[in-house]
Amino acid sequence: MCRTGQSLSRLNLFLAAPLLAVVLISSGCQVNVGGQTLPSPFYLDDDVQYFAPGPEFPLSQEAAAQGIQRAEAGELDE
Question: Whole-angstrom Cα distance, residue 26 to residue 29?
């Protein structure tokens, strides 16, 4: 047989558990769900990062170096 104090503490537990779940869900943590990294509610306040556009062909310096080497070796007809 339960005393009144025990039944009130159980009632408080059942009322506090959903409230705790809501607080934890809305706390603003970044989560990973199904391979997606979902942002926190504060992502609009983050600093904006700008990456300048690079060359269309990312290996342009390497291609130029190979062209010079081929020209020096006499493989390139000009």
Answer: 8
pLDDT tens-place string over residues 14-27? 788 888 777 777 76
The four Cα atoms 17, 18, 22, 23 give a dihedral, to 10 degrees, of -30
Cα–Cα distance for residue pair 33/14, rounded to 1 Å: 28
Q: How far apart are the first and last CA of the chain?
A: 101
If we measure between CA atoms, which residue out of 14, 12, 17 comes closest to residue 4? 12
Cβ-based neighbours of 38, under 8 Å, separated by 6 or more: 30, 31, 32
